[in-house]
Amino acid sequence: MAAGGIARQVKFGDFVADFDSFELRKHGIRLKLQHQPFQILKLLLQRPGQLVTREELRMQLWTGSTFVDFDAGLNAAIRRLRDALNDVADEPRYVETLPRLGYRFIAPVEIAAPSEPIAGPTTSGNGQAEQGVALRGSAVSAEPGSVLAIEQPKAWRVLWPWRLVAACLLVVAVGIVAIALRSSVFAKRSGDSRVYSIAVLPLQNLSGDPSQDYFADGMTDALITNLAQSKSLQVISRPSSMRYKGTQRTLPEIGRELSVTFIVVGSVIRTGNHVRVTAQLLDAARDRHLWAERYDRDLKDVLLLQSDVASAVALEVVGRLTPSEESRLKAKVRQVNPLAYEAYLRGVYFLYKWSAEDFNKAKDSFQQAIDLDPNYAQGYAGLGEYYEVAAFMSYVPPRDGYLQAENLLAKSLEIDSNSSLAHVLLGMIKLGVRCDRAAAEKELNRALELNPSDMRALDYRSYYLLEIGRTDEAIAEKQRVLKHDPVSLTTNSQLGLYFVLAGRPDEAIVQLAKTLELDPNDANTHFRLGMAYEMKAQYDRAAVEIQKAISLDKKPFSPRLVHLGALYARWGKRHQALEILGELRAMAKQRYVAPTGIALIYAQLGEKESALAWLAKAKGDDKPMDGPSRLLLTDPRFDGLRSDPRFKALEARIKPDLACPPF
Q1: Which tens digits make up the pLDDT trace of 281-321?
Q2: CA–CA distance from 83 to each of 26, 92, 105, 609 (Å)?
Q3: Within a domain: residue 653?
Q4: Nearest-5° angle of CA 124, CA 129, CA 135?
Q5: Residue range(s) defining the domain that contains residue 655
Q6: pTM of the predicted structure, to 2 decimals
Q7: Measured by CB atoms within 10 angstroms of the end CB, which terminus of the chain is less buried, N or C?
């Protein structure tokens, strides 16, 4: 058969493309290749050695009536094709990329005329071998640049639209994704306890409306939360993932920075009440496509969409979900009021902006979600989180704020007892406000049962362990948090502080120095590094770091001045300590300065009477979770005063003020 004739099979390398059955075979074994990548292969084989432009591919395979992100779809299809051919973009053997132009098939091509049938094994969709028939015939070479006329069978042209409809229905059907993905990239055997690391990069908002960013961010957050329910996945937290919004870094760079094996990328298109999510799973180190799918839902079924995407990604990575993981995902599947859901997402979006103005917008949005759907548990949890954070930051009166938060979180759990967010937030109220450690531990443990990779639950549990004096366990838990939040300045710096509080200054210095690589101008980290050096009696280095922290503060921060003054006194730098005392006394005329701080410097200078005089002015702090007077009861720098009856009387007076407020 001459070039330009009708070809139904084309041979190249070890492969045969059969256009009667739309199958790709290697050594007679049928390979799994989806329809779109196969169509691209067919177009490339029609014109071996010639450029097939991206525009040509779009016109033939992504018609004007198809609602899809073309660039993402084409890139995904090319990756699938290369995976099937075991080809790579950098050193291609078959498909060459011409940047910004298109693709070219560069391997020798032969036309295989159908004649002799030969028996050969094929593989079914689930990966099991089955008997089938492959065709072998006389081969006719095609010269580079020639055009192979490949006939598409009429029967396929008739059946293809109906097969497309069937395929779409299968994608959106509940449970079909799980069945289709049983042959996962890394099939997990029974009893395999490996944990796979994965990050979800911010989904792109392709709606053409920047005001819809909150919706794409909310869908990203939901996917992270759902994936975190699998104990086999170590999921990077929202704060670390969101750092890569609009990033120009490559996938291998992001993978190294986050220490992850897999990365999920994708997009969200929202038009009216219709939502489309396109998700791709990639091998981070190799920048290699592993899986991709598109999901279409009505907005009221958005929880089903989130569950389906998370299930598909988890199955593709680990091979299976445990019954408890499947049940947790299904438990979230319910219809929601679309307007209430949108209001909730806006609330989360504004809350995480951390400004007084946006806090008010967050409150209004959460309240709107509740008004629109009084049975929407997440709406109550969101408003409860607002009040808890606002009370902590004194945006609202603390007592009133914590009470409101407690009531709202209880209401959320009344509607949905499986809300890990509500359990976490309620746990912190039990610990810091109610002083009920047993109840706090119960709530935090329940949150982790529901969501094993919930970074916030892990973080708050580490704080709980620190609060009750189990410092080594607190550090271990904080290190788990860091695996989920590796590029977080706050988490890295707090781990250094935990080392300081545990009396492990060498580890603290290493951790805090690494943290300063993330931000060399972080005041908290410099201050904590100074504390670590002070523990090693390296006072010169300690003073430099604490002075740096003070200089980086936007306004005078008296506790750090107190610490520097006490350091100078302990170091024997009396003159410098007295200078700081003068500065603190002057500051006290303008704003509140804890008397215990000034007393501490006098105590370190050995001026017992002055120290006791300032301690007599001390009283309980209004913030039970963060009171300077609390130091009086435990700080060893006051040990020289403890035998004095006046100090004992002061301890007895302050202790009741530090108890939890009588709600």
Answers
A1: 888 888 788 888 888 877 777 776 777 777 777 777 766 66
A2: 13, 12, 15, 79
A3: yes
A4: 80
A5: 555-663
A6: 0.60
A7: C
Number of residues written out for the chain: 663
Domain check: are 18 and 165 in the same one?
yes
Residue 259 lies in a domain: yes
Query: Phi-psi bin for 584: left (phi > 0), alpha (psi -120 to 50), beta?
Result: alpha
Cite the DSSP H helix spans in 433-520: 437-450, 455-467, 471-484, 489-501, 505-518
Select from 359, 362, 346, 347 the least CA-distant residue to 392: 359
Q: pLDDT tens digits, residue range 198-234?
A: 889 988 888 777 877 888 888 888 888 878 777 778 8
**How many domains is the chain partitioned into structurally?**
3
Claim to verify: residue 42 and residue 164 sit in the same structural domain: yes
Same domain flag for 121 and 24: yes
8 A C-beta contact, residue 419 and residue 413 = yes
* Residue percentage of the chain with pLDDT more than 90: 25
Nearest 5 degrees, angle CA 474-CA 478-CA 483? 150
Same domain for 94 and 192: no
CB 132 within 8 A of CB 102: no
What residue ranges of the chain have pLDDT lower than 50? 1-5, 64-68, 114-191, 620-629, 657-658, 662-663
Helix H segments across 248-301?
251-258
Query: Reduced to 3 states, what is the DSSP secondary structure of residue 621?
Result: coil
Rg over alpha carbons for the chain, rounded to the nearest Å, is: 32
Does one domain contain both 157 and 305?
no
Residue whose structure tokens are 């839902």 = 297
The pair of structure tokens assigned to 339 is 């307007």
| Together in a domain, 163 and 182 | no
Domain annotation covers residue 222 = yes
One domain for residues 273 and 325? yes
CATH number of the domain encompassing residue 263: 3.40.50.10070
- Whether 286 and 269 share a structural domain: yes
Last residue of a domain, one of 333, 367, 388: 333
Can you tell me which residue has the tokens 């059969």? Answer: 18
Return the closest-CA partner of residue 328 out of 305, 311, 345: 311
Around 504, how many Cα atoms within 13 Å sit in the side-chain half-sphere? 14
| Boundary-marking domain end, from 169, 189, 206 | 169
Beta strands in 309-437 (DSSP E): none
540: number of Cβ within 10 Å? 8
